[in-house]
Each structure stands twice: as C-alpha cells, then as structure tokens.
Amino acid sequence: MTDSRARRWATTSARLVVGTGIAAAAVVAVGAGIAAPWPTLSAEPVSVSATPAPSAATVVCDGPILALGRTIEDSGAISIAAGQSVVSGPSTTAAEPKTVAGPAGAQPVALSADPSGGVRAELAASGSASLADADLAGFAASSCATPLLESWLVGGATTTGSNDLIVVSNPGDVAATVQLTVYGVDGPQLPPGGSNRVVAAGSQVVIPLAGLLLGEESPVVRVTASGAPVRASLQASLARALTPGGVDQVGALAAAAPRQVMPGVSVVSEPDGANSATIVRLLAPVGDAQATVTIESVDGSAEPRTSTVPLTAGLPSSLAYDDLEPGRYTVTVDASVPVVAGTFEATGFGEGDDFAWYTSAPEISTASVFAVPDGPDATLTIANAGTDAATVTLVDTTAGGSTTLSVAAGESTAAPVSPGSVYRLEPSAPVHAGVDFSSESAIASFVVWASDAAAPPLTVYP
User: Fold this and answer.
1) Per the structure, how many domains does the chain have?
2) Quick check: is 128 in a domain?
3) Are strands 137-143 and 165-170 parallel, antiparallel or unpaired?
4) Which of 79, 95, 237, 248 could cross-link with 111 by S-S, CB 3.0 to 4.6 Å?
5) How many Cβ atoms sit within 10 Å of the Cβ of residue 377?
C-alpha cells in the first residue's frame, strides 16, 4: 500500500468512526428527549352558565264521565253522564283557567300558572265523579296532569261488556297530531282510527277503544303527539249482562321503565275462589324480558307474594290473583328491560260493585303537591323502592299542619288525607305515592306526580 492510499484509508476510517459516534449521540439525545417531560400548554374554554326561564305550569283534568251510544238514533253519540268535581291549589298559586272544548258541550278543567320570582309555580288539581244509572254506574277519581308528548295507557278491554273511551286533550295554542298504537295479541298495531288524529288547540277528542282494535282482553295503548303535548287518559266501564259493573278514569304513564311501582292497591272483598279481583297487566314494548311481580301488604300483615313471568316483546301479559285478603298492598314489577304495568282491582262482581285501574307511580325526589277530591276513605300510600330509609313530611296547605312519616327501604306506609285539601309531599329520599278511595261499592285511585323542578343551569360554550 502506498503512503497516499494509506492516508486515504485512515482518513475514511476516521470519518466513519466520527459519523457513527455522532449518530449514536443523536439517538441517545432523541430518546432522552422523549423520556423527559415536555412543556404543556392548556387553556380553559370560555363558557357561560345560563339558567333557562321557567315555563308556566299547566295541568289538564279528564272532565266529566261520558256515555257512548245512549240514543238509538245515533249509537256513536257521546253524552255527559256525570259532572266532575275538581279541587285545585295551593291557594298561594294564582292559577288561571284555560278553555278546553270537549264533546257534547263538556268543558274539562285546565289550569295554568305563570312562574313567580323566577321559580316555577306549584300547581295541583284532581277531580272525582259518581253515578248510578241503569247503563253506567260507579265512582271515578283522577289527578289533573301535565300534557305529554308520549303517554302509555294500561287498562280497559274491547271485549263484550266493555265500553272504553280514550280521551285526548290539547290545552295548547297550536294543534297536535296524535298517533295511537294498540298492543294486543298480534303485537303493536297502528289502526286507521288511531293514525294522524288531529286534536285542535284548546279541544278534547274522544276515541272509542273498540273502534281501534276489537276483541282485545288486555290492550295497552301508546299515545304519541307532535306539534303540541297532550293529556291522554282512558275512561273504562264494564257491564255484566244488563248490570253495570263500574267505571274508572285511568291516568297515563309517562314512559316504560325496568321498575314499575303501584302503591295503595285496595283489596276490599273477601276472596271467593271463583273470580280474580286482582289482575296485573304487563307489557315489554321493545324486547323480551323476565319480570318479577311482588305484592306486599302495606301494614305487613301478610307475607309478600312473588311471581316471575316471561314477557314477549310487544305482547301484553296478565297475572291474576284470586286469594288476596282484604287490605292495602303495593305492587312492584322488576324487569330486565323497560316495561309498563297496571293493576286492576274490583270490589266484587255483582250489582252495585265497582273497579279501578292502579297506574304505576312516578318517582318523587323533590317537594311535590297533590290535591284530594271528594271520595270515600281517602288514603295516601307511600312506597319506598330504594335501598335507603326515607322520611316524608306531609304538609296540609289548605287546613294547615304537617305529619312526618317514616318509610323503611323496600316498604310502604299509608296515611289518611282529607278531601278538599291540597298537600305538599317533601321526601328525604326518592319515593312513589298514590291516593286511593275505597268502600264496599266504590273504588278509585290516582298517582302523585313529581312537581316540575326549575330547569337546571346550562353551560354554554360560545
């Protein structure tokens, strides 16, 4: 090797060594940079907290008891069979009546109260009616409720002897378009008579249930509205041969849920072993389910009864009980999917008897008001379906005074209430509540609705 070639080789080798060293140093530097904490930049987004203004409180009553087909000349004519007596309040709320035009000149009571001092008004109303006519007899009581965009009616039938009416009221200023889906033995159906029914502003529409789907023993009706919310209810009546078997005004459920609670089911008559005076109707609208039905006496005098029933999506199902002893009970349904439920109870099956459908009661977690109309043995039943004990303060806003009730977890309690009074129910934990009326020949009930709370603050990001 010549000296010049030796020098070039040495120079190249040195370059390779130096390059390799620089590359290795760069790799170490990059690795150290990744491992070392990097500076961070953060900024809180600009936001504004805004509280929506409360809207007016509005409740709509069912109105009078209606009769269908009392005239031979017009079997589809609707007439007023008995007026409804309404109690509303509290007296501190300045409620204004709203005009609702019903059939045959009926004018159901609708009340509205504007917010005061930025707070939504307290407003409650309820009504009752009784009659003893040759074709229609019984006692009915119902609460006046807030209009909804979706309602579920659990009760009634379209078999022989039933003459049931769906009552839809629109107290608003714009028309509502209503769809009535009937769930029966063939699943959900939207019959022509229940499709795109227009309920004009400030009016009430009455639809015979048998005109939607005939021959159903256990129907459930879903009422949906667009354009404006509506108040939907069911007037159910029975006739056994030529003997009237009772009448009821059945309130709506707002939504299906995995748990449904029906407090204060009053069993009046002794079991006769031949007829089922207590029937629990169930429906899982959108999925198959396993449902557990528990019947517990309010005073703890009887052992709880538990039954498990499979439910097929869209098909109503019923459980019948013919051996419950007289007393007051809470019926609870727990299911693996959302369900709707109602409980039928009859005083008997002869002349002068009556029946009622007990609607599932919504959960109440804030102070709520309810009114008590005229009726026999008015009683408030409070059910605690939670895991914590609840203390409930019951304030009589009409006569004054208050009562404190303790309700253990998983149990119920009952207290008498006075017809004509408006009460405020103040729970320390979520509860369910209902008011029922019962005697040997009269029975009715309605649930206590949670008062609409003020809208919570909204966070707005400009």
Assistant:
1) 1
2) yes
3) unpaired
4) 95
5) 13
Q: Is 11 helix (H, G, I), strand (E, B) or coil?
A: helix
> Please, how many CA atoms are within 13 Å of residue 245, restricted to the half-sphere of its CB?
21
Contact of 224 with 150, CB cutoff 8 Å: yes
CATH of the domain at 132: 2.60.290.11
Q: Is 459 exposed, middle or buried (0-12, 13-18, 19+ CB in 10 A)?
A: exposed
Residue type, 382: I
187 Cβ contact partners less than 8 Å away, ≥ 6 residues apart: 314, 315
Confirm whether 86 is domain-assigned. yes
Instruction: State the burial class of residue 13 (Cβ atoms within 10 Å of its Cβ: 0-12, 13-18, 19+).
Output: exposed
Nearest CA to 64 out of 119, 3, 11, 142 is that of 142
Token digits of residue 179: 């769809």
Residues 385, 288: Cα–Cα separation, whole Å: 24
CB 232 within 8 A of CB 152: no
Q: Which two tokens stand for residue 213?
A: 């789907």
User: b/e string for 289-318 if b means 16 or more Cβ within 10 A?
Assistant: bebebbbbbbeeeeeebeeebebeebbbbe
Q: Is there a domain that residue 186 lies in?
A: yes
Give the pLDDT confidence of 39-93 residue by residue, as tens digits.
555 556 666 555 566 788 999 999 999 999 888 778 789 999 999 999 999 999 9
- Among residues 354, 340, 360, the alpha carbon closest in space to that of 437 is found at 354
Alpha-carbon span 220 to 183, nearest angstrom? 5
Domain encompassing residue 240: 51-248
Question: Which residue stretches of the chain have pLDDT < 50?
Answer: 1-36, 453-456
Closest CA to 290 of 274, 312, 269: 312
pLDDT at residue number 391: 98
Q: Tell me if 352 sits within 8 A of 392, measured CB to CB.
A: no
Measure Cα distances from 377 to 60, 247, 338 in Å.
25, 18, 34
- For residue 376, count other CB atoms closer than 10 A to its CB: 18
Is 37 a member of any domain? Answer: no
Check if the beta carbon of residue 363 is closer than 8 Å to that of residue 297: no
Which of helix, strand or coil describes residue 323? coil
pTM of the model: 0.87
